[in-house]
Design a protein that fits this description.
Structural class: alpha/beta
Shape: globular
Radius of gyration: 13 Å
Helix content: 10-25%
Number of helices: 2
Order of helices and strands: EHEEHEEEE
Distance between the termini: 29 Å
Number of strands: 7
Length: about 110
């Protein structure tokens, strides 16, 4: 795991988020975390609760990273941006999305397994 300069590490994240990151990197390889708890996010974002990260996969494609993240039991929301950054969180509901503008996002809610 590496970090973009604005990210100050994993200290603000909940233990289950850190565990999810470990499981994810075990399956897809190295990632560069681009956002944790700081920064600007949607008003009720899981980022502010220490339950989400945004990252760039370094050892695989964003598409494969999204597919793997959706298979993890701990993940709630999984999303991707056109620039190759992937969002994962350990929120209570499963939500998948793609896009960067609210009007162009496609959402899909799934029932828990």
């Amino acid at each position: 795991v590496s970090f973009q300069p604005q990210v100050r590490g994993l200290g603000c994240l909940k233990p289950d988020t850190v565990a999810m990151i470990k499981e994810l990197t075990d399956r897809i390889g190295a990632i560069q975390i681009t956002s944790t708890c700081g920064g600007r996010h949607a008003r009720h974002s899981q980022h502010y609760r220490g339950k989400a990260i945004d990252f760039r996969p370094l050892a695989t494609s964003a598409r494969k990273a999204v597919a793997v993240a959706k298979t993890l039991d701990a993940t709630g929301g999984v999303g991707s941006y056109p620039n190759g950054i992937v969002h994962v969180d350990v929120g209570d509901r499963e939500l998948s999305w793609f896009g960067h503008k609210r009007a162009s996002r496609r959402y899909a809610y799934n029932a828990r397994r």
